Every structure is written in structure tokens, then in C-alpha cells.
Fold:
Amino acid sequence: MKAAILAGVVVLAPALALAEGCTLDGGTVIGRVEAMNQMVLDLDIPGLVAAIKQQVGIDVAADMGKVADIFADGFNGCTTIAQRVDQGGMVQNVVLFHGKVGPLFGYWLAVPQGDEHRIISFTFHTDLDQVMAHLR
Structure:
């Protein structure tokens, strides 16, 4: 268990320190979310897959490989287009990644865990309606 926690810290620590992300002006900033947004922008699919596995506990390598294929030309940045912060500390972000071939939308759900937030749900889709359906 300690090794798994350490691996998660090793995977996310460099990204958290360097994350430019897609923050909403005046919004709540969740370091892990912004780090993962930056991984999408950089097409760092192995890093993103490892971070998602550490946070959510699932392997998304095959699905994220499809995203990398579709958006192989990269992104021109990203913007958080919706954010919901609940009284209990739950934070939901909808992010628009400005793909050179078209838009990619992401959804992140993070909940407080100690002094940080843990991502417990996410989705990516090229159809905004599919992503907005996750917003609670």
C-alpha cells in the first residue's frame, strides 16, 4: 500500500509543480485537475493514464489511446467553461480543449480528502452534451 501511495506521489508531483492547466479566472483551482488538463494538452497519455489509475482506480489506456489518435495534431490550449462548487467541497469542472481538428470536452469531479481533493469521476467526449450530462 505504501508503495502505491508513493508511486502516485511520484507520478503527480512533477506535473503539479509544472501545471499550467485550464483554470477558470476566479474559480476554484484543484492542482490534480489542472495537472491532468496539462497532460491532455501535452498528449502525455502514459502520464494521464497512470494518474487516472492512481486517482480513480481504473485503467483507461485503450480509451485514451483513441483520444491521442484523434487529436494527434495537438491542442491550442484549453478553457474551463463551467465549474460547480458545492458547500461540502465537491468541485466539478467542464473543460474545453481547443483541438486543432475540433473540440474535446472533459469533465472532472473531485471531492475533498484531507487537505487536498481526490478525483473520483471523469469523462472525455467530442460532444458537449455527453459531457454536460455528467454535471450534477
In short: Strands lie at 75-85, 91-99, 102-113, 116-125. Residues 2-18 form the longest helix (17 residues). The chain has five helices and four strands. The radius of gyration is 14 Å.
